[in-house]
Amino acid sequence: MDPENPMADLLAQAQQMQQQLMVVQNEIASTQITGTAGGGLVSVTGNGVGEITGISIDPKVVDPDDVETLQDLVLGALTDLAGKREALTEEKMGPLTGGLGGGLPGLG
């Protein structure tokens, strides 16, 4: 710390935090996450920023007479994926944003 120029110290700390946030944001964006439902019969894969990159449906849950169950499983897998994405963001961003009073827009 420079006792003669506390503003310069504050600016340096802010720049360091911004760089750390950018590294963590890139890490979150590149992380692949999979949400599942029905014991893995349906899985949805995405990244940490909300993009869906893949979906897998086991053929044994494809029943033309029971489309509702398949829809519920897909919705369940998407919900699971969203929860895992939120947990990842909290895990990665928490140490950096803990004292800032909340998360950053667009990351939750």
Automatic annotation (TrEMBL):
A UniProt-annotated Pfam family: YbaB_DNA_bd
Coiled-coil regions listed: 7-34
One example GO MF annotation: DNA binding
InterPro entries: YbaB-like_sf, YbaB/EbfC
Keyword terms of this UniProt record: Coiled coil, Cytoplasm, DNA-binding
Domain of life of the organism encoding this protein: Bacteria
Annotated segments matching region Disordered: 89-108
Localization of this protein: Cytoplasm, Nucleoid
Gly residues: compositionally biased ranges: 96-108
Listed Gene3D superfamilies: Nucleoid-associated protein YbaB-like domain (3.30.1310.10)
Any GO CC annotation of this UniProt entry: cytosol
Function: Binds to DNA and alters its conformation. May be involved in regulation of gene expression, nucleoid organization and DNA protection.
Family according to the record: Belongs to the YbaB/EbfC family.
Subunit structure: Homodimer.
UniProt name for this protein: Nucleoid-associated protein GCM10011489_16030
Originating organism: Gordonia jinhuaensis
